[in-house]
From TrEMBL, chains A, B:
It comes from the Bacteria. PROSITE patterns: HTH_MERR_1 (PS00552), HTH_MERR_2 (PS50937). Keywords: DNA-binding, Repressor, Transcription, Transcription regulation. The lineage of its organism: Bacteria, Bacillati, Actinomycetota, Actinomycetes, Micrococcales. This is MerR family transcriptional regulator. Signal peptide: none annotated. The keyword DNA-binding applies. Pfam families: MerR_1 (PF13411). Residues 1-68 form the HTH merR-type domain. Transmembrane segments: none annotated. GO terms for molecular function: DNA binding; DNA-binding transcription factor activity.
Amino acid sequence: MKIGELSRRTGVSTRLLRYYEEQGLISPARTTNTYRTYDDRDVARVEQVVGLVRAGVPTRLARVLLDLEDTRADGLAASCTRQVAQMLAEELTGLDERIACLTRSRRTLCEYLQRTEHATAVLEGAHAPALSSAPPH
Amino acid sequence: MKIGELSRRTGVSTRLLRYYEEQGLISPARTTNTYRTYDDRDVARVEQVVGLVRAGVPTRLARVLLDLEDTRADGLAASCTRQVAQMLAEELTGLDERIACLTRSRRTLCEYLQRTEHATAVLEGAHAPALSSAPPH
DNA sequence: CTTGACCTTCACACTGATGTCAAAGTCTAG
DNA sequence: CTAGACTTTGACATCAGTGTGAAGGTCAAG
């Protein structure tokens, strides 16, 4: 598919799709040697990128994480220098802190909404499952 | 305490502390009517702010969340307009998405590190507990 | 071949979060 | 009182993530 369709499917502007490519997050092929071409895997990849970016993960780290998933998907051996492993371990604790902080705020917000008279009205339908004390997934 | 000490305690630059004040996230008193004065609660508040901001929560939303916690701490009644409740509910799903995405990336990164020959070396000590499949808290 | 829809690159611009620097006021120790 | 450390405001700079628009190339339908 071309960039316009990918944009429609993911809700990400074409501008941003080109930006992500510039940052090395996606690497579409070129058909006519001028038009970018994407496949279904790119759709998933883009969705994950926007998720990470909106969660405050800088594009540099996002790239590393995506590369990691690619490596695993390819069944390649996990090997890297001690230095890199150390850096990734630090990123892991960074992720943990982010998750912990978000979870705390989520709980606060969630509890507040439940004590609100509009709770049922506002949290009906798709939002309802999100009310459990633990975050989904 | 004055801004310098708060900066030292929290690791947040004085510049950023003033910025957070400008954004309505902290409201220090003024002693000599020129110097900002902070108390211990501000330390906790600042730490929470940096956590939220680093997790991709915009300062505007962070302010809402902190106000919510203040309200709860004051034992005030939970009441707001339907509109506001609706908006907060949307923010809740936004938080859920952020948490889900971070959790997924965390798992990927974590699994990768465990398959690395440097796993034990790099994840020893304080980092070890973070290796469980579920994020902390 | 022309038209319209879509694509390309390039560039300017804005917001949010930060850093840095300058000019000037305040406070405390000596 | 003076020197040094700290503070204040304000301006300019940077980076990431975006929007927007210009100028022009590609392609498919009529």
